[in-house]
Amino acid sequence: MQKQLIMVGSITYALKGRDILRSMGFTAYVERTPSHLDRVGCGYSIYVKDNIQRADAILAENGIPIQGILNDGDAI
After folding, report:
1. Of 38, 58, 68, 76, which has the highest C-beta tally within 10 A?
2. Domain chopping of the chain, boundaries
3. 69 DSSP 8-state letter
């Protein structure tokens, strides 16, 4: 399975996003964004085990701004 990360603009958004996703039944963790892909400055992402498209939509619905999505180390 590919590793899927949702990049966010701050550690605060990463923690809030993780908690929202966990409350919805997702496996979600906060991780450092790989340094060569950190274009937002914060350096934190939310690791999502499954269904990153749904997780992205849930975060957007809850006001968490997404800076980008990483799939197996490649920015999408």
Report:
1. 58
2. 4-75
3. E
User: Which residue from 48, 35, 55 is spatially nearest to 3, judged by alpha carbons?
Assistant: 48
What residues pair up with 32 in beta bridges, in sequence order? 44
Q: pLDDT tens digits, the chain, 76 residues: what are they?
A: 568 899 998 999 999 999 999 999 999 999 998 776 655 556 899 999 889 999 999 999 999 999 888 876 555 5
In the block, tokens 């550690």 appear at 11
Dist. CA 16–CA 65, nearest whole Å: 11
- Compute the chain's Rg from CA coordinates: 11
Q: What is the pLDDT at residue 74?
A: 58
φ, ψ for residue 49 (rounded to 5)?
Answer: -70, -45
CATH topology for 4-75?
A: Alpha-Beta Plaits (3.30.70)
Kindly give the interhelix angle for 11-23 and 52-61, rounded to the nearest 10 degrees: 110
